[in-house]
Amino acid sequence: MNEEQSVEREDEGRMVGRQGPVPPRSVAEAYEDRAVYIISVAAELAGVHPQTLRVYERKGLLRPARTAGNTRRYSNRDIARLRMIQQLTQEFGVNLAGVRMIVEMENQLDELRERAEQLSAELDRAHVRMREELERLRRRNPPSEIVPLRSLRLPFEDRER
User: Fold this and answer.
1) How many angstroms separate the most distant Cα atoms in the chain?
2) CA-CA distances (angstroms) from residue 28 to 8, 24, 33, 40?
3) Which residue segment(s) compose the domain that 42 sits in?
4) Which pLDDT tens digit goes with each residue over 99-130?
5) What is the pLDDT, as a whole number, of residue 125?
6) pLDDT-based confidence at 158, cuts 50/70/90?
7) Is residue 126 part of a domain?
8) pLDDT of residue 35
9) CB under 8 Å to 34, separation ≥6 — which residues?
10) Is the pTM of this model over 0.85?
């Protein structure tokens, strides 16, 4: 998700970004992105202290949605990210600056995957259009029959005999 589509608040059960409603790509993704957990529940699910969530947010590692009253709301995707941050810092000894780089690279990778999917779909549509155009041209200009050269009587052949 890019900066312009980042979720700012939940409005009537749907996520709202800076440029209007962010359309979910699938039901599963909509479920993952639905911000429903308050900070204490999110912290408990991720196995961290609520203050840790605030630190991660200040460091730019996490962007919880906000309600109209400016209360943080965390989604299942946020919880998964929290668990990943915990694993990187606790098990692999990565500092928060390193985690931030990894998170940014993951975001870039997600954007590149999405772009590749768009380009692939565009290529498929172009392929279909090309096939349709070829078929249209074949119907308009049916292939000619090939006639062997030997079967033709050329005008100069009569004169030589």
Assistant:
1) 107
2) 20, 9, 9, 24
3) 3-94
4) 999 999 998 999 999 999 999 999 999 999 99
5) 98
6) low
7) no
8) 87
9) 10, 13, 15, 75, 76
10) no
Adjacency order of strands within the sheet including 20-21: 20-21, 14-17, 7-11, 65-66, 72-73
Mean pLDDT for 85-95 is 95
pLDDT beyond 60 at 62: yes
| pLDDT value at residue 68 | 93
Structural domain includes residue 41: yes
| 8 A C-beta contact, residue 38 and residue 73 | yes
- Residue count of the chain, please give it: 161
The b-or-e profile of 139-150 (16+ CB within 10 A means b, else e) is: eeeeeeeeeeee
| Phi/psi of residue 37, nearest 5 degrees | -95, 135
Cα 55 to Cα 46: distance, rounded to the nearest angstrom: 14
Neighbouring CB atoms inside 10 A of 115's CB total 10
Domain holding 42: CATH number? 1.10.1660.10
Encoding tokens for residue 18? Answer: 């800076």
Summarised one tens digit per residue, pLDDT across range 4-13 is: 344 443 443 4
- Domain membership flag for residue 146: no
3-state SS assignment for residue 69: coil
